[in-house]
Design goal:
The structure is a homotetramer.
Chain A lengths: L1 E2 L10 H9 L12 H13 L6 E5 L2 H12 L4 E6 L3 H4 L4 H4 L4 E4 L8 H13 L8 E8 L10 H14 L2 E6 L2 H5 L8 H7 L2 E5 L9 E5 L8 H7 L8 H10 L4 H22 L3 E2 L7 E2 L1 E4 H7 L3 E2 L1 E7 L2 E7 L6 H12 L3
Parallel strand pairs in A: 1-12, 3-4, 3-5, 5-6, 6-7
Antiparallel strand pairs in A: 2-8, 7-8, 9-11, 10-14, 11-14, 13-14
Helix pairs in contact in A: 1-11, 2-11, 6-7, 12-14
């Protein structure tokens, strides 16, 4: 069985596990105050071209989203998200468990637009009983989105502008950031993101690390006492150096981007095969997640050898599914899948 | 200025303020353990034809919704509501502040259907990663809804059935219950509601009381330690007798229903005038809230003499507004409004 | 049975119920935006000699404490309180339910001292892992305390000074404030309190109102969006005018203080009788709560005719209890109690 | 600089990093549903002699404590802990952030006694207004405690008995469990713990793993939907196999216990040196944490070469500090420290 169902089926990039082995018996102080964390933070700051105030390392995505959002909001304030946003769908209500409403906006492609933010904000402000409704205070976007689409520079700048105008924080969930920044058509750099967002994070779990997400804070309102939030929400790893070692390895010689590009390239090979069969897509994109709509009988045939994710029923004989590549996907496995797709009748 | 903007512009029914005056210097124990509360609870239980286990008195609606929902749900469970539901829109995220997600369902008329519940529940159950999404556990409906519509017996029974099948609690917000149960076309009794719902509340604030909501618990899972929840959420009135006195007055000789019917009858007179002008409605209904769509210039004329609520912009020259009658509305004021509507050109 | 067990056994001062009756059918806007609330707020501001920024009216004490504390603190910050503080003991964890730790300090008489605050704060600051412990951010005191003692001007000023030095908010729970400010030995005025505290509240429930607490905000950090907090926590009364009417009546001609003094005077008569019997006290004080230590057999005799509160077992034959007077206590009832105490053998 | 300040200064036991390297490129499903987690859970169940229902793997201690406690308690219920308990002091109010009060009991040695539980529970039950106070529902103990002391079998059985009688859950935080179970004087086995506790966890972070805590659930009331809690609180590691691999390695051939015993033995060597100098201890114990009271000038000398933790000021010239050994401490480093202690004058 070859798994294409997600981008966290393997461990980590070999150079990370080597570095972890090498440094294993060194003594360091705990909780992210060690030199490896400092070094990794410096490397990330440099990549952001000095648009970052602080970098913190947390363990996983749900934890990171909930921590950042709780740090940004008072209890009567909410976070705007696409209805398909990870925080609105796949985190078991972690944001609500910390007391905040997710204000969901409709979206077909996983993205939200500046105009939608404007309308929602003005509706709230214009309400004579505005203290009876949740006050919008943060905008959450994911890049790439849960549907594999990416934000273009112009879109991000417009979002940043409307957020700035209304005093909203702009937060980008970059769980798959590497795959976005190396995708065909992408025109964003990490420095652009650091300039536009008040806070964002660089996903390690899905892009080569064993685990770990690097939160980059740009707005000083979010900087104060952030470590208290990390500790309280359970995200402060005792052996914090594990995160520092992983991220410094990923940002050495742009490994993070090289391995993400590898995944995108292999995804393109699968896409080409799917295109040859004439399948359409739930949403078209250029990153490592592919959402073809396929005949159920074709899916059944592939399921003997390949793992993929069921996404949605389209009609009585067709379903949308997800195939994922990752930094760890091999040319060989993709070749097999492509051959088997080509062979479907 | 005559106010038609809501149903809580006046104090309380005269017989309530009289009774409060009469009993003012009596000594009673606090926190709802007095004889007036016992008496009121008994009267309500009788009205429910022995389908109630417990009756508790709280002060206001937001507090009551949040208390009941928090008592019913564990932190990973959510409450299903129409997107227009009061808890989803007008309570400043009180439910989320207690850690629970509101799972909003689309609705044009403020009501939700059994079929929608079924779909949402089955979608959750069918998810292979179901612990990554909020578990639906309660269904919140309001009757009348925020748009003045009412549930029919068959609809309520279907909701109860689907809730029972899936182990979901059914909770009815009856902030305006009196207006619903005396509306033209209503075929529900309070006993029906007590039979169908696991918990519901009878609104006092909007139907003749100074304040107060009576929570009726039917499901024994919700009965245990409910007073701890009331106290913690700030809903336990020190002089609890004030609630007992008000509700026992309202349920003596069905005063609650008599005064609600009065409001509906006056609403019908306003509706007749609006119909004569040929206005359409945002939603049609038979209770004390009326949602006409009117030319903005007509609204401007009326606004000199009458208070009403702005609801939504329909087009460049029309808006939907809300006129409310209540137990306190006078024939005389309605007559004036009707004449002025008739006189619009 | 004559009840001395608490100060909320009766309704409200007759002039309040009269005013509520008189204004009952007036139409006003809701949620505390009416003229009665404005008038009451102005009267209170005047009493504070312009040391107040805003006055808000809430329904009950637990709700008020939780709302003020949640408005002041971020999730990793805690509120310092005497171990006997109402928020630490008698509010079913309402503060914790909103996510904040109560940092309890030892206290024999219900009061906390500036020196204790200093020590606790410095211990936190000196901790190299300080983000692993809750950050102290607010000091909660009650005046009178739960044990009937009062703060003297010098003590309050010292607390204010240490709070100011360390950036802590000082919050006074004045559920029984009237009884404190009219007690023998008191040297504080409401203006002193408004000068020293960042926020405090004036209790209505226990001092002549049917219900209601008036929150006075002095620090502008606590002012912003406070109405959102009130609404979310369920403390925004739909018919807010009920609170405005009650507080404007209480602050007309200093009624609030006159009726509180009445209670203290009657408490002194009971104290004199207890002194004649030679009883000692759990804590000595000069307000309307009295905590004598009495032989259990004497208590048994009194319990046939009088309600009092059990406080603590002292030894095998003695207990501490609480007798309360209030604005509503009659000379006649006190005379009876005094005679019966005098007659104990 | 040789660090003795905590037991998480190094990475992990060499056999773990080897196993992680070996399995690195295997494909497994995520979120703890892989075979390595199943295998590790089975090994732990076996060690518990079939007294466990479920084993779950989380990442860190604060997260684990908060998740278990939130899963056990409703919002009005509290957890009893020694005042020195980790949840009460060093987790930034994580338990309160989830809405629950920690009910702290005095303790000199970090342990709490059955009699204290009994008194606190009965005080609550005897309160006529018991719904005004937090309901005790869980007892939290740590073994070894934060002061390095251990529970004896008889003590644990008495705690279990009183908890059982009153319907309280007994929860043991075993962050350092290995050091406790291999300490001189210990008479508990893991099976005893599984028999006595409703839930407990086996600490990996401090006993040889890179990170990870294994929660063992014995009471079926705590079993239902536990994975929802893990996910919501951010404790569900995407690459869950990392935890399975670590714990299966630790429980193969009792490695967990062997390496813990190593630490205790080295701690004894340091203790012997401290005893030779005649120092007393803050608390005496037999595990890997040592709390000597030493002259400040001696501490200053040692601080040039050794890291230790400052614990408390004892008097003007003495302080209590903490020295920790761990699975990773070397004989050589201990030998140096011992020589330097012996050389102090």
């Amino acid at each position: 069985m070859i798994l294409f169902q997600c981008d966290y089926n393997e461990g980590c990039h070999p150079s990370i596990i080597e570095k972890l082995s090498e440094t294993n018996m060194e003594q360091t102080v705990g909780y992210g105050m060690d030199d490896y964390c400092k070094q990794a933070a410096d490397m990330i700051c440099q990549k952001c071209e000095n648009n970052a105030l602080d970098v913190h390392f947390l363990v996983g995505g749900t934890q990171t989203n909930a921590t950042v959002i709780d740090a940004a909001l008072r209890s009567y304030q909410g976070v705007i998200s696409a209805v398909s946003g990870h925080i609105n769908v796949h985190e078991t209500g972690a944001v609500e468990a910390m007391g905040h409403k997710v204000l969901a906006l409709p979206s077909d492609d996983g993205k939200i637009r500046a105009e939608q933010i404007k309308q929602l904000y003005e509706l709230h402000q214009g309400d004579s009983d505005k203290e009876h409704t949740v006050q919008p205070k943060m905008v959450y976007i994911s890049n790439p989105t849960e549907l594999g689409t990416i934000y273009y520079k112009e879109e991000l700048e417009e979002l940043a502008k409307v957020c700035h105008t209304y005093g909203l924080y702009l937060f980008m969930d970059g769980a798959r950031l590497g795959y976005g920044l190396t995708a065909e058509g992408n025109d964003l750099t990490m420095a652009d993101i650091a300039r536009c967002c008040d806070v964002f994070y660089i996903g390690g779990t899905k892009v080569g690390a064993l685990f770990g997400e690097a939160v980059v804070i740009r707005n000083k309102d979010l900087q104060k006492d952030f470590r208290y939030f990390i500790k309280q929400k359970g995200g402060m790893l005792a052996k914090g150096r594990l995160l520092g070692i992983q991220f410094s390895t990923l940002f050495e010689n742009d490994l993070y981007f090289t391995i993400a590009q590898h995944a995108n390239k292999l995804a393109d090979e699968i896409r080409a095969a799917l295109n040859r069969k004439g399948y359409s897509y739930l949403v078209e994109n250029t990153t490592n997640q592919i959402f073809p709509i396929m005949p159920d009988e074709h899916l059944k045939i592939l399921s003997d050898k390949y793992g993929y994710c069921y996404q949605a029923k389209i009609d009585d004989t067709h379903s949308a599914v997800r195939f994922c590549t990752s930094w760890a996907t091999t040319e060989e496995n993709v070749k097999r899948l492509v051959e088997d797709i080509d062979g479907l009748k």
